[in-house]
Amino acid sequence: MKGIILAGGTGSRLHPLSLAISKQLMPVYDKPMIYYPLATLMSAGIREILIITTPQDHQLFRNLLGDGTQLGCRFDYATQEAPRGIADAFRIGRDFIGGDKVALILGDNIFYGSGLSELLKANTDPDGAIIYGYHVTNPSRYGVVNLAADGRVESIEEKPANPKSNYAIPGIYFYDNDVVSYAADLAPSRRGELEITDINKAYLQDGKLRVSILDRGTAWLDTGTFESLMQASQFVQVIEQRQGLKIGSIEETAYKMGFIGAEQLRSLAEPLRKSGYGEYLLQLIPDA
């Protein structure tokens, strides 16, 4: 399975902060925002990842992440000329996806929780589509999935005024290769975008959509507003200082997943020692 991070968009809800820099490059406590979704894909065992950015931010992401070889991965880059919707990622990434299955994660979504890596790994070979459900108090703000008593998907609605359930659909999706043709046939919505909800509805109509519920111990944070960005930073700070373990460290994830060895981790850590980030990475190495 390959992965795509959609890190485009104007970030208008974060203006004026995002007038000069992509919101996915802004700090969430001690790391750039994009580290978190990138670490999530890597923790699922995904090593070939396409990062879709705006044209003006393209080189900044390259400067930050390189080609991925330092992490035992391969990073490709593409640009989204205008915010044409989440499903546009599959048109942009068509050649990158090739004949493979693909996971898409939004660049401003953060996931954290015990057992999350194992859950994601279990879904990397989908026959159809796998989306996730997360219980929220305000489902009207999100895409909402309604499940029958036996777990079958009954309906999907985008920001419904009267939601049929409290299960929001967070910004991570796993698809078989049919998603490429579904996206190619997609018509823009009333707001002129290619909607991910329409992709999911197409899979649902064909009887190939499954929902995996994120349990109550999993945190899902959307960092697209001033308030949620601050809350995400506070959440990461509290967890890291309480546990002494980092959230969303791509270097640690690469090491723990076996993508790189101890010496490669050491070479990544040394330039980062003054901030304390490198010291943390060095402590992961036995007898370092």
From TrEMBL:
It is an enzyme of class 2 (transferase). Keywords: Magnesium, Metal-binding, Nucleotidyltransferase, Transferase. One of its GO terms (molecular function) is metal ion binding. Its EC number is 2.7.7.24. It holds the Pfam family NTP_transferase. Catalyzes the formation of dTDP-glucose, from dTTP and glucose 1-phosphate, as well as its pyrophosphorolysis. Belongs to the glucose-1-phosphate thymidylyltransferase family. This is Glucose-1-phosphate thymidylyltransferase. It comes from Robiginitalea myxolifaciens.
